[in-house]
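Box 3.1 A note on notation
Throughout this textbook, protein chains are presented in two layers. The first layer is the amino acid sequence; the second is a token string describing backbone geometry. Keep the layers aligned when reading.
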Amino acid sequence: MLDVHDRRIAAVLQADNQRTVEDIAAAVGLSSSAAHRRIARLRRDGLIRGDVAVLDPKAFGLTMTFIVEITLEKVRVDEVSVMKARLKAAPEIQQIYNVTGEADLLLIVLARDVEHFEQLSRELFSADPLVRRYKTSLVVDRVKVSLAIPT
């Protein structure tokens, strides 16, 4: 069970995971050793799932973001698992959600330009017999992009 100190540590780390343990301890009202133990436990228990740098896609030539809704044919679970693994392996696909409703999968895809996205869609969706149809939306403005959770 997370207590108030664990939640405060998590909030600090979500905002800036490069802060020193001493800095975090001061921010949450703990000793450095207590903060260190708690951070180690959060990592060990899988509550902290990774430490990453958040990059600007445009700085890497990925100027366009697309939201893709995929509707699948009625297929076996093992076939869908193979498709999910193939989609996960595509570096341009940032996120994949298995959802309820009209679509089965919802993807967030980065591309250099429309031509690049068309190439990706042919390789990843159009040619796949498991895909009944897909619908694409172009993101005009990335208003909020975050994986932070409320603590």
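Helices lie at 4-15, 21-28, 32-44, 77-89, 114-126. The chain has a mean pLDDT of 94.
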